[in-house]
């Protein structure tokens, strides 16, 4: 009976999954399918924030709306690329769930981990559950040695300077209580890849309860990585900014 009540308790919550996209025509249908596959007994909506993709991503999303329903797949498009941070802010405005999940569209964040995120939150009442590559059970697949060293080095540097209290500071696969995300996101000024780092540092400084779930990050199968030299420079600038302001 206790397990039955717990199961019913899980179903009363709704989860809004925000997926920013830019040229993800080859990935978006698969990621949506996998979310539905792994969250069969969960009340959720998927909010796709597309930044004017020229490859037809929005047309694919509209087809998915016909298949799954416009109440389950929400397309909230923007005219052009405006940054990752503002994409989450835009999606959050349209979220009706009690919790908000943020994840990438390129299949690097596998939806099979979503039940673990939800379970961890229900067990611990955490304000934030974040996926991590850097604990037992986590890892990275498809990266060359240089990229692994760059990512690991970035995390070690940030850990040393900022003491964020989490093992994977640059990860972007997270579950938030909606009210917590609204609070934390209003404090952030970053717009690019530094945004994820600033979010978790701000949350730590505010005293929010953060839990981690091990994940294996898989390099994108289709499309081109959007991480380049300019993003690395922005990361270093963001690190200095957070060191001085938090």
UniProtKB/TrEMBL annotation:
CDD domains: DPM1_like
GO molecular function terms attached to this record: dolichyl-phosphate beta-D-mannosyltransferase activity
Main localization of the protein described in the UniProt heading: endoplasmic reticulum
Enzyme Commission identifier(s): 2.4.1.83
Presence of keyword Glycosyltransferase: yes
GO biological process, one term: protein O-linked glycosylation via mannose
Cell compartment(s), UniProt: Endoplasmic reticulum
Superkingdom assignment: Eukaryota
InterPro entries associated with the record: DPM1-like (IPR039528), Glyco_trans_2-like (IPR001173), Nucleotide-diphossugar_trans (IPR029044)
Gene3D superfamilies: Spore Coat Polysaccharide Biosynthesis Protein SpsA, Chain A
GO CC list: endoplasmic reticulum membrane
Pathway in which the depicted protein is active: Protein modification; protein glycosylation
Domain Glycosyltransferase 2-like: start-end pairs: 16-184
Catalytic activity line of the entry: a di-trans,poly-cis-dolichyl phosphate + GDP-alpha-D-mannose = a di-trans,poly-cis-dolichyl beta-D-mannosyl phosphate + GDP
Keywords: Endoplasmic reticulum, Glycosyltransferase, Transferase
EC class: transferase
Family that this chain belongs to: Belongs to the glycosyltransferase 2 family.
Quaternary data: Component of the dolichol-phosphate mannose (DPM) synthase complex.
Functional summary from the UniProt entry: Transfers mannose from GDP-mannose to dolichol monophosphate to form dolichol phosphate mannose (Dol-P-Man) which is the mannosyl donor in pathways leading to N-glycosylation, glycosyl phosphatidylinositol membrane anchoring, and O-mannosylation of proteins.
Name of protein: Dolichol-phosphate mannosyltransferase subunit 1
Annotated source species: Microthlaspi erraticum
């Amino acid at each position: 009976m206790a397990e039955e009540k717990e199961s019913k308790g899980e179903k009363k919550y709704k989860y809004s999954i925000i997926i920013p996209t830019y040229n993800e025509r080859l990935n978006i249908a698969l990621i949506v399918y996998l979310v539905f596959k792994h969250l069969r007994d969960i009340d959720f909506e998927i909010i796709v924030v597309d930044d004017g993709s020229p490859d037809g991503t929005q047309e694919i999303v509209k087809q998915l709306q016909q298949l799954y329903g416009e109440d389950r797949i929400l397309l909230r498009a923007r005219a052009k690329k405006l940054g990752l941070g503002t994409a989450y802010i835009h999606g959050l405005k349209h979220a009706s769930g009690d919790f908000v999940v943020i994840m990438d569209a390129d299949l690097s964040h596998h939806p099979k981990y979503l039940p673990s995120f939800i379970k961890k939150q229900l067990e611990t009442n955490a304000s934030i559950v974040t996926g991590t590559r850097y604990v037992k059970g986590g890892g990275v697949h498809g990266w060359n040695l240089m990229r692994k060293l760059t990512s690991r080095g970035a995390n070690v540097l940030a850990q040393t300077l900022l003491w964020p209290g989490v093992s994977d500071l640059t990860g972007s696969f997270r579950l938030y209580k909606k009210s917590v995300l609204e609070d934390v996101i209003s404090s952030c000024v970053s717009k690019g890849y530094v945004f994820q780092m600033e979010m978790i540092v701000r949350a730590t400084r505010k005293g929010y309860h953060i839990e981690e779930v091990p994940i294996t990050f898989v390099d994108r199968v289709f499309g081109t990585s959007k991480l380049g030299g300019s993003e690395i420079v922005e990361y270093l600038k963001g690190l200095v900014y957070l060191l001085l302001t938090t």
